[in-house]
Design goal:
By secondary structure, the protein is of the alpha/beta class. It is 40% helix and 31% strand. Strand 4, helix 3 and strand 5 form a beta-alpha-beta unit. Helix 1 runs antiparallel to helix 2 and helix 1 runs parallel beside helix 3.
């Protein structure tokens, strides 16, 4: 069983993207995503997706434990997770700070 987080990423002038990231890679991906959003570059987004999106077959026993919905044009983000340990929740809270410092309105349900 894999634990996964789903991203729904909307960047101005680019087609919205939805990807699944295994939780083992989520914290790294979440920390890196801010730079991708700031640059608004399609090639950089595609590189991000190729490095973090889950590519193997999704199985019935897999579990989605969180969602991150981002609209970069409106600088809005919603982060919602359940069934993750407190250590991971605290790391997510720390990663959210630079998003807020960059002007993002972040709703977090952890």
């Amino acid at each position: 069983m894999e634990l996964c987080a789903m991203y729904n990423i909307s960047i101005e002038n680019l087609h919205p993207t939805t990807i699944c990231v295994v939780m083992d890679k989520f914290l790294d991906s979440f920390a890196e995503l801010l730079g991708v959003l700031e640059d608004q570059d399609q090639d950089e987004l595609m590189d991000f997706i190729s490095r973090y999106a889950r590519t193997d077959e999704i199985r019935p026993e897999d579990k989605t434990v969180g969602f991150v919905v981002i609209n970069s044009a409106k600088k809005m983000m919603s982060v919602s997770f359940s069934d993750i340990d407190e250590n991971v929740k605290e790391k997510i809270r720390e990663i959210i700070k630079p998003y807020r410092d960059s002007g993002y309105s972040v709703e977090a349900d952890l």
